[in-house]
Write a structure and sequence with these properties.
Blueprint lengths: L6 H18 L13 H9 L5 E3 L3 E5 L11 E5 L11 H15 L7 E5 L5 H8 L4 E6 L2 H13 L7 E5 L2 H7 L6 E5 L2 H7 L12 E8 L3 H10 L2 E9 L2 E8 L1
Parallel strand pairs: 2-3, 4-5, 4-7, 5-6, 7-8
Antiparallel strand pairs: 1-2, 8-10, 9-10
Helix pairs in contact: 3-4, 7-8
């Protein structure tokens, strides 16, 4: 992101490249850089993104298009900007479908959820549409936080219903006054493995979780780490090469 851009970082990268070239006997590389305007690429994919039904209840609708007529689905208006989470990716779909099943099993209007690595805010907003009381969404990327805030407004939720801030699980551990009912995390397997030991800090005995961004071949190491930290995998859902783990306290 441009607000995090530092010329010294580029200088450090250039120095590393030159050192590597020296080590392997290659000519000194020529270094050049330029800023890429977000809209240059954002406009092109917007032309091809259409309303999409997910699960039994959701309809993800590009914010610049009218809501399709005669739909009885929960409409999730989205403009992800530079953040991850349009609903097209298998992991997002698996998480929304898991949420739909989990929050349909019992009364959900008192549910408080944590969304770690919230991206566009799609999972938090989906949970609120399903009846959750509140969602706490964090992401280390300031563009993701900005996107979540914009999509919160698009879907007419308040800052109290969807609290979002730049940070990660450690921020939630210090900010939350009470544990959450559910933890949503759609990132990458290696990041999830690092976060699992910290999940106790925001969980209670009945807390459940939905974890994705995990390749099927990575599911065992995630499941093993969960077991080592007092969690068990209740179900594993698969789509293409990706999987979603629905977890609970052991």
């Amino acid at each position: 992101p441009q607000e995090q851009f530092e010329l010294l970082d580029l200088a450090a990268i250039g120095l590393r490249l030159k050192q590597d070239a020296l080590c392997v006997g290659l000519p000194m590389p020529m270094i050049e850089w330029r800023l890429i305007e977000e809209e240059d690429w954002a406009k092109s994919w917007k032309l091809h993104w259409k309303p999409q039904e997910i699960g039994d209840r959701f309809l993800i609708n590009p914010a610049w298009l009218p809501v399709p007529d005669n739909s009885d689905r929960l409409v999730l208006n989205m403009d992800p900007g530079a953040a991850f989470g349009t609903g097209a990716h298998a992991t997002t779909q698996l998480c929304l479908e898991s949420l739909e099943m989990r929050m349909g099993e019992e009364r959900s209007d008192e549910f408080v959820l944590a969304d770690v690595g919230c991206g566009s805010g799609v999972l938090s907003i989906g949970a609120l549409l399903l009846g959750a009381k509140r969602a706490y969404a964090v992401d280390i990327d300031p563009l993701a936080v900005r996107s979540t805030q914009a999509n919160r407004d698009l879907n007419q939720f308040t800052a109290e219903q969807l609290w979002t801030h730049q940070g990660s699980l450690d921020l939630l551990a210090t900010h939350l006054q009470t544990p959450v009912d559910g933890i949503l995390c759609n990132i990458l397997a290696e990041v999830i493995v690092d976060l699992i030991p910290m999940m106790d800090a925001i969980a209670k005995p009945s807390t459940w979780g939905i974890l994705s961004g995990i390749l099927l071949e990575q599911s065992k190491i995630v499941a093993d780490t969960l077991e080592e930290n007092g969690w068990v995998v209740a179900t594993l859902w698969r789509r293409q090469e990706w999987c979603c783990l629905n977890i609970r306290r052991s």
